[in-house]
Amino acid sequence: MTEPYRHSVSVAAVVVNDDGEILVIQRRDNDAWQLPGGILEPHESIHDGVRREVLEETGLHVEPMHLTGVYKNIPLGVVALVFLARHVEGAPQPTDESAAVEWRAPARITEEMTEAFATRIIDALEFRDHPAVRHHDGTNLLQP
Questions:
Q1: What is the pLDDT of residues 77-113, one digit of tens each?
Q2: What is the pTM of this model?
Q3: CATH of span 8-142
Q4: Cα(32)–Cα(11) distance, integer angstroms
């Protein structure tokens, strides 16, 4: 008997500094530039997961402010909840999970990230009154 299909839930944060730059990490496992984030633990709240993941990947303490988007990686079955977050304390630094941590100008985001991940930042920066809901294949957005 096959095991039923299950989704996993991840969380990520769009952290913007006073100069309007976005906090990004270079992942150690695939060298991709992405937002800090990861899989939500079964025992933790969503906001605690955002705080933990950003701290683990960047050394920064942040406070999630509001949900800006929900994104589903169709092939992997991962649903990502992305939050705009404010920097509370700490300085960005590489960690066991990130080879590099940098503040990037928004104009560089679309040049250096896949569409599926750059869109998360664009949606957060252009947030109006409700979160974006999008689907992707890990690289490109898919039509709903």
A1: 999 999 999 999 999 999 999 999 999 999 998 888 9
A2: 0.94
A3: 3.90.79.10
A4: 17
